[in-house]
Predict the structure.
Amino acid sequence: MEWERIRKRPEDYVSANLQEYEGYAKNFAWSQARALLDGLPGGGLNIAHEAVDRHVLAGRGDKLALRWIGRDDRIRDFSYATLRAQTNRFANILAQAGIAKGDRVYLLLGRSVELYIAALGTLKNGSVLSPMFSAFGPEPAKARMTIGNAKALVTTEAFYRRKIEPWRKELASLQHVFLTECSANRPPGTVDLNAALAQASDSFETVWTSPEDMALLHFTSGTTGKPKGAVHVHEAVVAHHITGQLALDLHADDIFWCTADPGWITGTSYGIISPLTNGVTMIVDQAEFDAERWCRILQDQKVTIWYTAPTAIRMLMKTSADFPKRFDLSKLRLMASVGEPLNPEAVVWGVDAFGKPFHDNWWQTETGGIMISNYLSMDVKPGSMGRPLPGVTAGIVERVEGGAVREITEPMAMGELALRPGWPSMMRAYLNEEERYRKCFVGGWYLTGDLAMRDSDGYFWFVGRNDDVIKSAGHLIGPFEVESALMEHPAVAEAGVIGVPEPTAGEVVKAYVALKGGFEPSEALRKELLGHARQRLGPAVAPKDIAFRQNLPKTRSGKIMRRLLKARELGLPEGDISTLESEER
Ligand code: WT7
């Protein structure tokens, strides 16, 4: 369906950083963006220096950096100077424990203040930050910490006991565990983080890191195999900084709320780094989504820029368009969305409910920062992801004979979304997986794995994924990880996992299971398997539904054909099934 374009009038973007897209993009060079940052002596660069210390050294230490709102509405404020002191303390704790440059520090925390202190303190120490989502169960945590050779972990006592302690002995690299929310009888081999912070010195000299030193390790999922560790370097901060200005229109006097959890990359790139390098005040809410609470936060905190996700917007849409109007949201000047397809209805609903559209943008764990965006000064076409960031070249390509690709230039022709490598926040590797990384690049393009189209105005339109990974509530879930956990159950012979459409979360995880001889399908077994998966994987990854099948469709080489499972589930044409092995056994 064609939705009318939402026109922008000059008064909508008087103070926008990006006033005129074409001209700006034509003249843009990444070196200009780099010049906005301090750097360290001798050509060094450190994300935490740019995010925190730079402002204090420039006399902006009293500015409010972080306002944290607790689940119980308690507020804790951190100025840039306080944030500097606290992150210095954490860096000192790491250094004293012998955790050095390049060592991997993992986080498994809800949105507590310690998360922010530990994330930035880790970077100051030159160590590599790997945040994990707090709703991961023991298996996803173990897989990620093992791949990345975790040396230290910051988590809560409850998470530690449930998700880490049962297997800790299997990971010899893990030498230090720091606990928040801990009791007097902390488990052996752990340190009380807050007691240590209180004792640590608040002065620390940021460890010298080069722009190409590894800074962030963000895990993402593919169709097959283990999670992939996308390696990002300190130079990524150049992209975090400038995309914050161009796509999110951050100005130093903004009050910015990114609702994403730092356990996923949006919550790190734009929920920690970009707002702080831009010197804004950022809001963190510890609690989960609640329509009333969120509108109240937007109102009471006088949020000017709000970066959220389609699932949350669709949950808000369950209230009436009049609901947000009960609040004074007059300060709100830009609403942006990312992570999954933003349906045109939601963009238009934004205009009804808030008087302005949601601005969709697109990127991925691999790209480290926003790549395609609807800008404040540019007309919004509801349903479109917008246009490439200045400095980024995007194209639509198709694979051709001989392992090459051809760019498709005809408007609205579907192909794979591809980017010309060269922006600072591009991943530098999949950790220890050279081959998987190499396969992402063909003919001078980085292939994103997404299908899309470009219209004659240069706007990009998302079509779907080119693979079997699942997007549920904005979270990327690898079917293989879910299948593996199900296969650990003694009753399960085979498992095939797909995403099935669901109006709010976009997709939900559904598993198809074939049982071993001697086991019979039953409601009790179905519940047991759901519980088993949830216990191992955690609620963020576990299937919401399980169905029994006698056999699963497989290729002749024995791979489960998830596409066919999905086509059957949705009653769609089965497509090319020439490689289908007989389902009889
Ligand atoms: C995948 C990346 C967004 C960064 C954090 C998540 C899907 C992302 C959009 C959008 C439609 C989108 C793509 C992409 N996606 N943004 N605006 N419209 N789909 O990163 O977990 O690596 O997921 O999310 O499929 O490849 P991620």
Summary: The chain has two domains: 10-454, 467-582. The pocket of WT7 is lined by residues 220, 265-266, 338-342, 360-365, 385, 448-450, 462, 465, 471, 476 (CB under 6 Å). The longest strand covers residues 492-502.
